TrEMBL record:
Gene3D superfamilies: 1.20.1050.130, 3.30.70.60. The keyword Protein biosynthesis applies. GO terms for cellular component: cytosol; eukaryotic translation elongation factor 1 complex. Belongs to the EF-1-beta/EF-1-delta family. This is Elongation factor 1-beta. Residues 138-224 form the Translation elongation factor EF1B beta/delta subunit guanine nucleotide exchange domain. It holds the Pfam family EF1_GNE.
Length: 224
């Protein structure tokens, strides 16, 4: 198992392919597995790695809660596709006595051999993935849109939200939910294509209606 070197373009491509039909590294909710891989990646993946970038931005939103996420961090090599060799921190396999170099081993050469083997395994994985038909990854998102006060025109607020149009975005049902002191929030469902629409974009576009919208939160996020 493993993604290879997540600081390299090859490792990030493996991560991107792995997340093509998954929301999280393990299971159906964010966990310590996501935090371990997120920290190993370190910086946002390139824009053309849609699935990895969508996952990275989503896990980044849990930064303040990461210590409370479920699960226990494991070695990085315990995560990822099963058919890619874990090379994270791996030591070179020991050789049989017949293979011992009596004049001393060359660590540099061994490192190059391990690197070459890793690249060959990753290339095989990439080749297998490329033969699979492309799947359009979609997610169902439930948004909470909060007004400034009880005098905000909620019909107009919803009209503004639904006026946001984008390729890969479909608005669904909605309802008003009381939050206290006579104030109600708009709870609205949408379906998005993951490589075209993200929660960051939705938040930016929705909160731009600042006369009506105080804030937006993601109440639920599920892969379809």
């Amino acid at each position: 198992m493993g993604f290879g070197d997540l600081k390299s373009a090859t490792g990030l491509r493996v991560l991107n392919d792995f997340l093509a039909d998954k929301s999280y590294i393990e299971g159906y909710v964010p966990s310590q597995a996501d935090i371990a891989v997120f920290e190993a990646v370190g910086v946002p993946p390139p824009a053309d790695l849609f699935h990895a970038l969508r996952w990275y931005n989503h896990i980044k939103s849990y930064e303040k809660q990461k210590a409370s996420l479920p699960g226990v961090k494991k070695a990085l090599g315990k995560y990822g596709p099963a058919d890619v060799e874990d090379t994270t921190g791996a030591a070179t396999d020991s050789k049989d006595d017949d293979d011992i170099d009596l004049f001393g081993s060359d660590d540099e050469e061994e490192s190059e051999e391990a690197k070459k083997l890793r690249e060959e395994r990753l290339a095989q994985y990439e080749s297998k993935k490329s033969k699979k038909p492309a799947v359009v990854a979609k997610s169902s998102i439930l948004l909470d849109v909060k007004p400034w006060d009880d005098e905000t025109d909620m019909a107009k607020l919803e009209e503004c939200v639904r006026s946001i149009q984008a390729d890969g975005l479909v608005w669904g049902s909605s309802k008003l939910v009381p939050v206290g002191y006579g104030i109600k929030k708009l709870q609205i469902q949408c379906v998005v294509e993951d490589d075209k629409v993200g929660t960051d974009m939705l938040e930016e576009r929705i909160t731009a209606f600042e006369d009506y919208v105080q804030s937006m939160d993601v109440a639920a996020f599920n892969k379809i």
